[in-house]
């Protein structure tokens, strides 16, 4: 089954304790992105990757890091989480090459709470 | 400036009736795509329908149709014959150009739809 797998689904952590949210896709997609969802703001792109070792900042990158060492994996790293990073996070992948319709696959989401 | 505007924070609809969720967008790129997603209380993002900027006809997918008015820059979602299971948050989103910023989607704030029995 074609899917994007995110882990964990739920995470409560304390301020300053480094954490990683994993994301893996099995569709050989070139493009992967991380989004955060906040009430009244919809989803906003944090970081994206256009292929292995090619990553760039999205609209709200402060406080986050990513890496793309393998095509299938795109982890999101919070080196020193703060309460304002409490949010619902989504990883999404999409194929490259041509414009596509509905070709995005989203993970199930990670609900992060930083206390 | 907001690129995607959903002006209805919440909507109610009677079961079996049709409902329209509003979405306006702003872009100067001639090539773009418009998407609608459904997010039930469980949180996952479910793709509903897509409209390309060059598509001549309005997109339809089962009970979902997209009322695309290019000159007005609107892309309203119409759900016909509402069902209780349609109760969810609905997001309108846009992709500008081709493969820009990793195929970035820009989302609206969402509309919560509640279907009454």
**How many individual β-strands of chain A?**
11
Mean pLDDT of chain A: 94
Continuous helix count of chain A: 0
Low-confidence stretches of chain B: none
The major sheet of chain A is characterized as: 7 strands, mixed
- The tally of beta strands of chain B, per DSSP, is 12
Along the chain, the helix and strand elements of chain A come as EEEEEEEEEEE
Query: Any idea what the radius of gyration of chain B is?
Result: 14 Å
Work out the strand percent of chain B: over 45%
Structure, explained:
With about 120 residues, chain A is an all-beta fold. Helices cover about 0% and strands about 50% of the residues of chain A. Chain B is mainly beta. Chain B is built from no helices and twelve strands. Chain B has strands spanning about 5, 10-15, 20, 25, 30-40, 45-50, 60, 65-70, 75-80, 90-95, 105, 110-115. In chain B, the strands form three sheets. In chain B, strands 2, 5, 6, 10, 11 and 12 form a six-stranded mixed sheet that branches. Chain B starts with a strand and ends with a strand. The interface of A and B includes residues 49, 90, 104, 106 and 109 of A.
Short description:
The complex is a heterodimer of chains A (115) and B (117). Chain A has no helices and eleven strands.
Strand and helix map with partners:
The complex is a heterodimer of chains A (115) and B (117).
Chain A: E1 4-7, E2 10-13, E3 19-25, E4 31-38, E5 42-51, E6 54-57, E7 65-66, E8 76-78, E9 87-94, E10 105-106, E11 110-114
Chain B: E1 4-5, E2 10-14, E3 19-21, E4 24-25, E5 32-39, E6 46-52, E7 60-61, E8 64-69, E9 74-79, E10 88-96, E11 106-107, E12 111-116
Parallel strand pairs in B: 2-12
Antiparallel strand pairs in B: 1-4, 3-9, 5-6, 5-10, 7-8, 8-9, 10-11, 10-12
List keywords for this structure.
heterodimer, A: 115 residues, mainly beta, seven-stranded mixed beta sheet, four-stranded antiparallel beta sheet, 0% helix, 50% strand, B: mainly beta, six-stranded mixed beta sheet
């Amino acid at each position: 089954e074609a899917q994007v797998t995110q882990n964990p689904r739920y995470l409560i952590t304390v301020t300053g304790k480094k954490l990683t949210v994993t994301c893996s896709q099995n569709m050989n997609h070139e493009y992967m992105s991380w989004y955060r969802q906040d009430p009244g703001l919809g989803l906003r792109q944090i970081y994206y990757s256009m292929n292995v070792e090619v990553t760039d900042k999205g609209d709200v990158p402060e406080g986050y890091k990513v890496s793309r060492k393998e095509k299938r994996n795109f982890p999101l790293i919070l080196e020193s989480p703060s309460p304002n990073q409490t949010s619902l996070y989504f990883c999404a992948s999409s194929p490259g090459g041509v414009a596509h319709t509905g070709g995005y696959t989203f993970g199930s989401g990670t609900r992060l709470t930083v206390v | 400036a907001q690129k995607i505007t959903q002006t209805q924070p919440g909507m109610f609809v009677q079961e079996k009736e049709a409902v329209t969720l509003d979405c306006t967008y702003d872009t100067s790129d001639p090539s773009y795509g418009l998407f609608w997603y459904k997010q039930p209380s469980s949180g996952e993002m479910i793709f509903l329908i897509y409209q390309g900027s060059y598509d001549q006809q309005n997109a339809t997918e089962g009970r979902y149709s997209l009322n695309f008015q290019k000159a007005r820059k609107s892309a309203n979602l119409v759900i016909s014959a509402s069902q209780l299971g349609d109760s969810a948050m609905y997001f309108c989103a846009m992709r500008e150009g081709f493969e820009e910023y990793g195929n970035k989607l820009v989302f609206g704030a969402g509309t919560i739809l509640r279907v009454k029995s």
